[in-house]
């Protein structure tokens, strides 16, 4: 139920932004002062809905490219489970009209994600679980830049590299390991950024 609510809210926010932002960019002429800034700090506010903070720091490397690290961390609970997430990786952004300028962008990413969790249950007792994976993402989107503030909206695909292993250990010492084949999913990307 929570995932449906989160998906619906995300869709409504993106729909409203996709209608309003192009209108705003025509109503207020954009001054491309962003060309003088070498760095862009961006974060994804939608991930905060589930308790995970996720951000990138991009460094301009050429007229059309920027690269940098992507970091994420947080914790959340589902039922009797509590989870902790760590996400570390690298991101590239190619913008054919110029990096940190209004226009189309393509963004390849590679990330290592580790999730650990534990549960407390009156019937089953206590236990813990862990999963780690390496994933790649490909995004396409549009960025709007005003002075030092920017908004980026896009979508794409994500897939895991190789199989994903899920380890479960109960308080009695029983261990279960399950391996899942690589999976592919559709992504929606919305980020807010500040140039410096």
Tell me what you see in this structure.
With 196 residues, the protein is mainly beta. The protein has one domain: Porin (Beta Barrel). The protein is built from one helix and ten strands. The longest helix is centred in the first third of the chain and has 26 residues. The radius of gyration is 19 Å and the shape is elongated.
Mean pLDDT: 85
Shape: elongated
Largest sheet descriptor: 8 strands, antiparallel, barrel
Proportion of helical residues = 10-25%
Arrangement of strands in the largest sheet: 1-2-3-4-5-6-7-10
Count of helix runs = 1
User: Within the CATH hierarchy, at the fold level, what is the topology?
Assistant: Porin
**Total number of domains:** 1
Query: Percent of residues in beta strands?
Result: over 45%
Low-pLDDT segments: 24-31
* Number of E-state strands: 10
Just give the CATH class.
Mainly Beta
Task: Spell out the key features of this protein.
Porin, mainly beta
Reconstruct the topology from this structure.
Layout: H1 2-27, E1 39-43, E2 52-60, E3 65-78, E4 81-94, E5 103-121, E6 125-146, E7 149-160, E8 164-170, E9 175-180, E10 184-195
Antiparallel strand pairs: 1-2, 1-10, 2-3, 3-4, 4-5, 5-6, 6-7, 6-8, 7-10, 8-9
């Amino acid at each position: 139920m929570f995932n449906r609510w989160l998906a619906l809210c995300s869709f409504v926010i993106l729909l409203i932004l996709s209608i309003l932002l192009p209108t705003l960019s025509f109503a207020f002429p954009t001054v491309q002062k962003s060309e003088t800034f070498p760095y862009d700090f961006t974060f994804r506010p939608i991930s905060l809905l589930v308790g995970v903070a996720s951000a990138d720091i991009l460094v301009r490397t050429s007229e059309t490219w920027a690269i940098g690290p992507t970091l994420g961390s947080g914790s959340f609970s589902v039922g009797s489970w509590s989870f902790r997430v760590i996400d570390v990786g690298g991101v590239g952004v190619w913008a054919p009209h110029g990096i940190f300028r209004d226009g189309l962008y393509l963004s390849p990413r590679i990330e290592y994600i580790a999730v650990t969790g534990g549960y407390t249950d009156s019937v089953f007792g206590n236990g813990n679980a862990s999963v780690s994976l390496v994933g790649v993402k490909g995004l396409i989107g549009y960025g709007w830049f005003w002075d030092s503030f920017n908004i980026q909206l896009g979508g794409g695909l994500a897939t895991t590299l190789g199989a994903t292993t899920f380890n479960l250990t109960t308080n009695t010492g029983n261990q279960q390991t399950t391996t899942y084949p690589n999976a592919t999913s559709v992504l929606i990307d919305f980020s807010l950024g500040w140039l410096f």
